[in-house]
Amino acid sequence: MHVESILRMKGGDVVSVGPDTGVTEAVEMLRARKIGAVVVSADGRTLDGILSERDVVRALAAKGKAALDGPVSGIMTKSVVTCRRADSVQSVMERMTEGRFRHLPVVEDGALAGMISIGDVVKARLEELSAEAEQLKEFIAGR
Question: Which of 69, 89, 97, 115 is most buried (most C-beta within 10 Å)?
């Protein structure tokens, strides 16, 4: 299974904010949409960074409440690991585990194509394992 399969199931919508968006506004967006990260993009097409709950917590620990007063560009992760539609679920899972992050923007030809989370990846992998188990059962049963 590949990232493309995940995007077909969940869609390619990407929640994004501009780099000048206030941290408080972005945090409210995370809460309202029940998500853990937003892409930061000046034009809605290219990736400038990502703002995750972890980024907000780190900024609060370092700056206190003042961290909420600035723009997301001041606390976002600028060096973002991405994936492509053709990447395997297994390779993406390994990348997320090694990097210890839960959200991965999908980028094709320099443009955002979607966003996947560790939950999406685990769900896809479980479906893959379930299908393999069913095939093995059928093979053993001689069907």
Answer: 115
**Is 53 in contact with 45 (CB distance < 8 Å)?**
no
- Please state the domain count of the chain: 1
CATH number at residue 120: 3.10.580.10
Q: Are strands 111-117 and 37-40 parallel, antiparallel or unpaired?
A: unpaired
Q: Calculate the dihedral angle through the C-alpha atoms of 8, 9, 11, 15, rounding to the nearest 10 degrees.
A: -130
**CA-CA distance, 82 to 47, in Å (whole number)?**
10
Per-residue pLDDT reduced to its tens digit, 70-107:
999 999 999 999 999 999 998 999 999 999 999 999 99
Complete DSSP assignment for 35-68: -SEEEE-SSSSS--EEEEHHHHHHHHHHHGGGGG
